[in-house]
Amino acid sequence: MKYDWRKQEKKLYSPGEMPEEVCVPAQRFLMISGKGNPNHEDFSNRVGALYSLAYSIKMRYKAEHKGMGNRDADMEEFAVYPLEGVWDMEEETGADAHVLEDKEHLCYTIMIRQPDCITEEMYEAALAAVKKKKPNPLLDEITWEICEEGRCVQILHTGLFDDEPESFRKMDLFLEEMHLKRRSKTHREIYLKDMSRTAPEKMKTILRYTV
Question: Would you identify the CATH topology of the domain 2-210?
């Protein structure tokens, strides 16, 4: 059986264009951090390093479990989860990341979620293999982390990243109406479409606050 987050985790990955509450459980991630404008090459290089490792993990798992079905594994293969990013700003700016106009001051941690069946040992084995096959100094910056967001508010934003403030305003109004408070000035973005293959006006991005 192939596990597909698009079909089997709709509550987390299929919000509407109006804010809604969701409870996000503990999840395992490949993570890498950076600073600066996401339109610069350094950001895309970090995304590339993450994907090279994520696909190595996927293919190694598929090769090891193909044909085993439910006898020895919950699934034979899985769809790679979408790219996510937690966005912040440099402390001296004193602004929230989603209202910061100067993108050079952004700080971020981008990540790709891993299924529960993937262990840290599997990650380490795949990382060693990728380093040997396709050496990349950025691979040394990738970490394996468990993150539990808990209670959140999220919304689906369709269109340009620069138009996200309108969706954030909807979220802020929802928080006010529901008497909720953000737990952090950071926010999470989940990119449901491949940024390199999708026209900017057709991008679909989940925006999420922890509350």
Answer: Multidrug-efflux Transporter 1 Regulator Bmrr; Chain A (3.20.80)
Q: 210 pLDDT exceeds 70?
A: yes
Determine the Cα–Cα distance for residues 209 and 172; give it in Å rounded to an integer. Answer: 10
If phi > 0 it is left, if psi is from -120 to 50 it is alpha, else beta; for residue 148 that is beta
Select from 112, 127, 115, 141 the least CA-distant residue to 29.
Answer: 112
The stretches of the chain forming alpha helices (DSSP H) are: 5-8, 10-13, 41-65, 120-133, 164-177
pLDDT at residue 92 tops 50? yes
- The tokens for 170 are 């909807």
% of the chain at pLDDT higher than 70: 91
* C-alpha torsion sign, points 147, 12, 191, 183: negative
Angle at 159 between CA 155 and CA 162, to 5 degrees: 90
**pTM for this structure?**
0.92
Q: Is the confidence at residue 72, as pLDDT, over 50?
A: no
- Contact indicator for 106, 40 with CB cutoff of 8 Å: no
Q: Residue 138, Cβ neighbours under 10 Å: how many?
A: 17
User: How does pLDDT run across 100-149, given as a tens digit for each residue?
Assistant: 567 899 999 999 999 999 999 999 999 999 999 999 999 999 999 999 99
Q: Are 79 and 2 a contacting pair, CB within 8 Å?
A: yes
